[in-house]
Amino acid sequence: MDLYKRAKLEYIDPQHYGGKWWLAPGPFHTSLCAVRCLGKTIENSSIDDLWVESGLYSDVVCNQIINGSHYNRAMEAHETTLQVFTDLWLPTFFESRERVYDALIADFSNPKCNLQSGSHEEIKKAH
Question: Given a cut of 70, is residue 123 above it in pLDDT?
Answer without folding.
Answer: no
